[in-house]
Amino acid sequence: MVNFVYPEELTYFVESIRPFHIIDIGSPKWFDVHEMIIKLSQQATLEAVEHREEEVKEMLITTDKLKILIHEAFCVFLWKTRVLPHLLDIDPNPEATFVIYTVLYHEGAVMSLLDVALYHESGCQALQDSALDLVDYCAQAVAQVIGLVSMGHHENETNLDVDASILSELERQKRDLIYKIGLRCISILNYLADNVNALPLNASRRLVVTHDVPWLMADLLNFRPWQRRTKKGLEKYIDDKWIVVKGEEASKVIKHEAQAWFCMRQILFNNKLMQNYEINEERRKRLAACQCLLHECLLDQLPPLIELKQLLCNLSLSSGSGGSARNNLFLEEVPEIRERLIGETEKSGGFIEIAKQQENIFLCKDKQKISDIAQRLNAAYNTDLLAELEQKVEETEKESAVDHDDGDKSDGVKNHKCGNCLADAEKKCSQCKSIYYCSRKCQLDDWPNHKRNCVKV
Question: Which residues span the membrane (predicted)?
Fold first, then answer.
């Protein structure tokens, strides 16, 4: 069995995860933990894809490491936005941009681990007060994606106005990672909305009061950052890659779009959350405008959204305020991780001083030192094994598709039973492809039971 982290290594790797200060980024100890997080992220994804026992996820939760992962995400975010610009002021054309990219990639690996862990309610419960910080981080990341889309980042990738300098290439890499992280944060926000009862009250309030996540999801659904049109045709962002889709594939709902719809649905149908969410005229118009996006093809694939369309339709027919938030006195907690990191940085002399101290790491001109770091990181990323696994997954999907086609031709499509009423069924769930239903009504009725086991394949 292929593994990125072997059982005897798992406990050591997870227990080695610890919070770093911004000034520590790029240090030998930081690189040690970075390698472990990369491998843990790869292993966690492998366990989820192959439906194995999710040992990485369980270990992260039981050892209370999710809070540290959120800390690390903010740590890199602040380094990226506050320290990196000063480094590039010192040297606009660094020789080894891959060292800088390694730090940016670290943020993506951390969010990948959180994505896997928070799919389960136990992960959301383990967040405790750090859920406030995570809501802030994810809302900001999704807003950044919307900003990139509004600038045409995803539509004009091959026509970007990029000069020959290394700085421009680094900026492109940074934006690509911002894009990937933002799309991953859609899933995390959906998991938080789905398990809102497991979160602290302050975190659930931040979803609707501070960040207005329903409006944020409405913007996403209108901008559609998961698809684009290029010279090759229509492309969709599937498994962190842009893939050309044609025919029936073009109409299939992909994960990011489904997660955005379900996130909106979970919030609008949660009575406790809606007590704090005033449906004023602006919100009513913005949300009601989404009903035109809920076309028949989409509803066939995601039947639970039928109720959402009815709600949005009712909003469009109503006038004025459809409800008001309670105006009770409420003592709100403040997220601590970001502010604590900024406070620690100020004690170290500020972001400019940190940039000067890290100059010998990220603007290094010693070719031997650069080569040593490159070899070390190449071993950590294990690109050969990743390529091998990706090829196996693609082959498995092709074989599965052939088996489904042969089965449909040979058995008359009458051998399957409805997962709800046990009648003969022809249509299967478009996400997990493992359960059949005789009608849209049965699929909708069974969704509360099925959604926990519904994993997109």
Answer: none
